[in-house]
Design goal:
Layout lengths: L1 H17 L6 E3 L6 E2 L3 E2 L1 H20 L9 H27 L6 E3 L10 H21 L12 H20 L3 H25 L25
Antiparallel strand pairs: 1-4, 2-3
Helix pairs in contact: 1-2, 1-4, 2-3, 2-5, 2-6, 3-4, 3-5, 3-6, 5-6
Length: 222
């Protein structure tokens, strides 16, 4: 939580001050108190819970287990998790910046439905940084600790649905379809694969091993 919150807050403060790495934008007053007068306090929290859900799904789907020495899988989980996170913004940004009551504005609108392409590069890059830190911190985390995948999937899909409904209602069909293709469908596939990779229960033997079996007790019957 702490790496994602501080890194995303740093990226947002840098972005709202200089335009890097997302583009030139600014937050309005609809999201509550602003840190340093620039970034609402709810924004880093959103980065955390969506990034966490996306990374957990990618990690479990690619079977990144305890003491895994496969750098390919580690890098794949970071890349896929960052892609799922960025895909959310395909539907979130139009819904939050170009509707009747926007929550932020683009001072220099971009070519992708009012959003600059640098915005997505900033999302992906920020996701890669804090998911890489998560991968480092979770080197000793085994897959059974991640067996409950319904919760992160629910977080991802519910937030996508909220933004998607607003975007579709405002006529942003292409960004919503793109988010479905590169976000929702891969998330579902990773969840499904993760269900097979991660054991859901521990099987207890029906009989005790012979060496620890209790000593039989003879009972005399009258």
């Amino acid at each position: 939580m702490l790496p994602s919150v501080f890194l995303s807050l740093g990226s947002e403060l840098l972005g709202t001050s200089t335009g890097f790495p997302f583009g030139s934008y600014g937050y309005l007053s609809g999201l509550g108190y602003k840190i340093a007068g620039l970034v609402p306090f709810t924004i880093p929290l959103s980065w955390f819970y969506l990034g966490f859900a996306a990374y957990v799904l990618a990690r479990a789907g690619l079977k990144v287990a305890e003491n895994s020495h496969s750098w390919g899988r580690q890098l794949g989980a970071i890349a896929l998790g960052s892609l799922l996170l960025t895909s959310w913004d395909f539907v979130l940004d139009p819904a939050m910046s170009q509707t009747i009551s926007p929550f932020w504005v683009w001072y220099q609108p971009g070519a992708f439905f009012g959003m600059p392409y640098s915005n997505f590069a900033g999302w992906f890059g920020t996701g890669v940084v804090f998911m890489s830190i998560a991968a480092f911190l979770w080197q000793k985390l085994s897959l059974p600790a991640l067996r409950e995948l319904n919760f992160p999937l629910g977080i991802y899909l519910s937030n996508f649905a909220f933004a998607g409904i607003m975007s579709v209602g405002s006529g942003f069909l292409v960004p919503t379809a793109l988010g479905l293709i590169v976000g929702v469908f891969p998330a579902l596939m990773l969840w499904w694969q993760g269900q097979k990779n991660v054991p859901s229960s521990v099987v207890i033997p029906a009989t005790l091993p012979e060496e620890i079996s209790p000593t039989p007790v003879k009972v005399a019957l009258k």
